[in-house]
Amino acid sequence: MKKLLALFLSLALIVMACPTACAVEAKEEEAWIYLEEIHAVDLQSYLPNARFNLLFASDQNITGRALYEARPILEEKTAKKLLAAAEKFAEDGYGIVIYDAYRPMSAQWELWEIVRDAKYIADPNDWGSWHQRGRAVDISLYDLETGEELEMPTPMHTFDAKASRFGDCRKQWTEAAKENSDYMTRVMLSCGFETISTEWWHFQYTGRSYSLPTDLDLSLVVR
Ligand SMILES: [Zn+2]
User: Fold this and answer.
1) Cys-Cys with 153: which of 120, 177, 215, 219 at CB 3.0–4.6 Å?
2) Ligand 1 geometric centre to CA of 139 (Å)
């Protein structure tokens, strides 16, 4: 009788626990299906010479805490273009530093709550950004020989006018920063990326198709 009671209790516990466990499993399943659909690529095993400093996966960002799991993924079509760029950079003696790639919608919301200026963070109420579609990267470059990062106009993710490619702010950039960011931009444009006016570090591949924004929980798809 005691054994039966114990069995009943453990079954009851399983049934009670299932909604949470099953929801997590369903979310994980959904995430994997999405990653398969876009042919997601993990840049860590895809890009030669790349370095990773995913600021939004650390406390080194405007929120002071990690907004997602450190897994730099991109849609395959975009990753291929980045690979082409990485090869061109390598010929010139440089490697890419990745500061952000796929950024879930939940992270976009957290940034929006602080910045609240669509010039510097795409409004999640509206459309979000190409980061939520796995088609945007925030990058810099480093010297393959010395390992030193190249001088660029500003620190990453300033969320203000200083990083703008045009206007008075650009006049404040050093000559070396202008030269380095212009070189990086030329190579990225030649590989099919587009720029945005407000951030020297941001490159995106929009193509013709408009995929939906997503909110993958990257901690569920880290293997
Ligand atoms: Zn960006």
Assistant:
1) 177
2) 8
Residue 72's Cα: distance from chain center in Å? 6
> Any residues with CB less than 8 A from the CB of 102 and at least 6 apart, and which?
40, 71, 72, 73, 74, 131, 132, 134, 216, 218
Which of the four pLDDT bands, split at 50, 70 and 90, describes residue 19? low
* Look-up of token digits 């919608």: 105
Q: How far is the CA of 68 from the centre of ligand 1 (A)?
A: 15
pTM score: 0.83
How far is the centre of ligand 1, averaged over its atoms, from the C-alpha of 195 (Å)? 10
Annotated catalytic, 199?
yes
pLDDT tens figures, 179-219: 999 999 999 999 999 999 999 999 999 876 666 677 777 77
Structural domain for 98, as ranges: 41-220
Do 53 and 23 lie in a common domain?
A: no
Residues 45 and 33 in one domain: no
Which SS3 state, helix, strand or coil, does residue 179 take?
Answer: helix
Ligand 1 center from residue 124 Cα (angstroms): 14
CATH number assigned to the domain comprising residue 139: 3.30.1380.10
SS3 94: strand
Structure token digits, residue 47: 């890009």
